[in-house]
Specification:
The complex is a heterodimer of chains A (142) and B (175). Chain A has 142 residues and is an all-alpha fold. Chain A is 60% helix and 0% strand. The longest helix of chain A is centred in the C-terminal third of the chain and has 31 residues. By secondary structure, chain B is α/β, with parallel strands linked by helices. Chain B has one domain: Glutaredoxin, CATH 3.40.30. Chain B contains 5 helices and 7 strands. Chain B has a 7-stranded mixed β-sheet with strand order 2-1-5-4-3-6-7. In chain B, strand 1 and strand 2 form a beta hairpin. The longest helix of chain B is centred in the first third of the chain and has 22 residues. The chains are: A mainly alpha (142), B alpha/beta (175). Chains A and B meet through helix 3 and helix 4 of A and helix 4 of B.
Chain lengths: 142, 175
């Protein structure tokens, strides 16, 4: 039981910030900050988000985001600021438009193609089976 | 019926070409959003003359290489002899951006390894770096006489990169 609690504690701890304590104005602002840094990619260590990364640049960008929040900038403005400097690459959730459409809809497209292929295959098999029913034999050793 | 046999082969070839073309790419190098755009406007102070202001406009007029460096940066030490040699030969105008550094450390570093920079902008807290979209040091920007960024190098500059990518662009003989 204690081991389990320790394990849960560890899991929670590792999902917390790699962060410098920041004096947020209120809880609401802190929540906004958490959501933002979780959705923005660290430009140095590219498979981490800004919240988790310990890289210098991630630290700088967190500070920048915090300061812009204090200055009253909206989330959209802050994201636009970063995209202007680092490109769309910083967004973990790419924009739903233009060349990203393939990225968003690709899986769906593949699912549809696969679904059609399976349907065609099943139909053909059913037709073939109707013409020439396969004898069901008890002594086939599967 | 024969044609159907070639479908898997076609699929395989398509996929192979797609994956093969991705093999040689370095995913850690991001395309700069600044290519063909003006150097971001900034106001900072000079590294070598504390408190003396330097702004983006004062650099325009002739092409230069903006080189982001720091005394704590190992790759900067690798590229420094290359930059030093070309700049001292007068092959290019070199502007430094000292990134996230202590003044004393930076000056000591230049003392030890040579100072090829025409100007050095001081960015002690990395704020300027964000405006340039810098992810670390070293990074370098080729800027033309109109102040437009023409090329970006992430990582250390080798003599090959200098000869094939940077110098031709500074001379305006390559885009």
């Amino acid at each position: 039981m204690r081991a389990l609690l320790c394990l849960i504690g560890l899991l929670i701890a590792s999902s917390a910030f790699a962060i410098d304590p920041l004096p947020f104005a209120d809880k609401d602002q802190e929540d906004r900050f958490r959501v933002l840094v979780a959705e923005l990619r660290c430009v140095q260590c590219q498979n981490q988000n800004l919240a988790d990364s310990d890289a210098l640049i991630a630290k700088d960008l967190r500070k920048e985001i915090f300061e812009q929040m204090q200055a009253g900038r909206s989330d959209d403005e802050i994201v636009a600021f970063l995209v202007e400097r680092y490109g769309e690459f910083v967004l973990y959730r790419p924009v739903f438009s233009g060349k990203n459409l393939l990225l968003w809809l690709g899986p769906l497209l593949i699912l549809v193609i696969g679904g059609v292929a399976v349907a065609v295959h099943l139909r053909r098999r059913r037709v073939a089976a109707g013409d020439n029913p396969m004898p069901i034999s008890e002594d086939i050793d599967w | 019926m024969i044609a159907r046999l070639f479908i898997p082969l076609g699929l395989f070839l398509g996929l192979a070409v797609l994956l093969w073309s991705g093999l040689g790419k370095d995913p850690t190098i991001l395309p700069s959003t600044f290519l063909d755009k003006p150097v971001p406007a900034f106001e900072a102070t000079k590294l070598r003359e504390p408190g003396v202001p330097i702004a983006s406009q004062s650099l325009a007029g002739e092409p230069y290489l903006l080189n982001v460096f720091a005394s704590w940066c190992l790759s900067c030490r690798v590229e420094h002899p290359v930059l030093d040699a070309y700049a001292k030969r007068g092959a290019l105008k070199l502007v430094g951006l000292n990134y996230r550094d202590q003044r004393e450390d930076a000056l000591a570093w230049l003392n030890r390894f040579g100072d090829p920079y025409a100007e050095i902008i001081w960015d002690p807290d990395g704020r300027l770096g964000i405006d340039f979209g810098i992810t670390g040091a070293p990074e370098s920007f080729v800027v033309d006489a109109q102040g437009i960024i023409r090329y970006k190098v992430v990582g250390a500059i080798s003599p090959e990169i200098m000869e094939q990518e940077i110098l031709p662009r500074l001379r305006g003989s390559k885009n």
